[in-house]
Amino acid sequence: MTSPLRGLRVLELSQFIAGPFAGLMLADLGAEVIKIERPDGGDPFRGFGTGAADNDRFAGYSHNFSAFNRNKRSVTIDLGTEPGRELLRDLVRKADVLLENYRPGVLDRMGLDYEALRQDNPGLIYCSISGFSEDGPYRDRPAYDAVGQAFSGILGTLLDPAKPRMRGPTITDQITGMQAAYGVLGALVERGRTGKGSRVEVSMLDASLYHMPDSFTALTQTGLEMASETRAAFSLTFAFRCQDGQLLAIQVSSTEKFWRALLKTIARTDLGDDSRFLDRPARIKNFSALVEELEPIFAAQPRQHWLDLLIAADVPCAPVNGIAEAMSDPEVVHAGLFHDVTHPRRGNLTMMHRAVRLDGEREDDPLPPPDLGEHTDAVLRSFDIAPERLAALRRQGVL
């Protein structure tokens, strides 16, 4: 049960984040995910990010690439050549899933579209990830994470309207990858019933809209358009800078006992009698005034002082951790999400397990992210590609 997708073969024709994250999720569940890459550099994410150019150990193996490509095998095939496309079609005949995030029309022009490949394998699950719908007005526009965030409204609820700046991790990319993996799993269940494959399609825009349904029901049911602090006001969520400069997060939500416990902890029960904060609707309406009342209180003591008191009072709170602090947090260490693996060329690496446990277990036998083409010969032999054909393809520069 730790690897429920063991025996499933996935061909991943994707790069950057959304497609690779979908492949990663399937790989973490035990699928054999075979990443098909161009021989001349592979996934552009290999050379992305800081440090790659300054450290020969990680040249072509950036931290960005590593993050989204664990538990996979890399095979190089030049799909720009007819022999390369023929080889891919041979692999498709023995695969279960093809996952791609090319721009709409690219694989069609190569003769590698769903309708063509289903002739080779009627049971194939063909999953396409795109920025926008493949037949819509934006089909030919390029899309990255910020584009999906911006179009969907996510970004509008995250930016400070007074000083808008992009911050934080990618969101739309991972959301889209999760939706793609979710669609693939559903299609596999249906194939188990009927024996037939299917086409799975997800756009970054659709996935992003799907991620925040309450924002749209707020608009359609009540006429309320969510702004950057609306959700915080409704859930009474705060971030305060304490005396020592450290940040503290608190979420009281709609639970009255947490609100009362917060006021008692900070010795300001009088705020509970203030007409501006008498009940939840009043606190939502006067949220900015409430923040102004609370900020100087938390600024008067160091963060640990407040954490000790709030935890003792059972108020939902947490330190606002940096990345290093998050990794070393006692709960994170106890959960065992991070672990070390060894790559034969790259050495020791710290990687993540999957977040989901099955029967109390993480995945077994995790693989480090692959070097470009690291598994080409072994994987192609497992698909019964003859040694003499492999040699010929190498001479032709296809592999």
Automatic annotation (TrEMBL):
InterPro entries with a match to the protein in the record: CoA-transferase_III_domain (IPR050483), CoA-Trfase_fam_III (IPR003673), CoA-Trfase_III_dom3_sf (IPR044855), CoA-Trfase_III_dom_1_sf (IPR023606)
GO MF term list: formyl-CoA transferase activity
Gene3D superfamilies to which the protein is assigned, alphabetical: Crotonobetainyl-coa:carnitine coa-transferase, domain 1 (3.40.50.10540), formyl-coa transferase, domain 3 (3.30.1540.10)
Signal peptide bounds: none
Keyword annotations of the record: Transferase
Pfam families: CoA_transf_3
Keyword Manganese assigned: no
E.C. numbers: 2.8.3.16
Name of the molecule in the record: Formyl-CoA transferase
Native species: Sphingomonas vulcanisoli
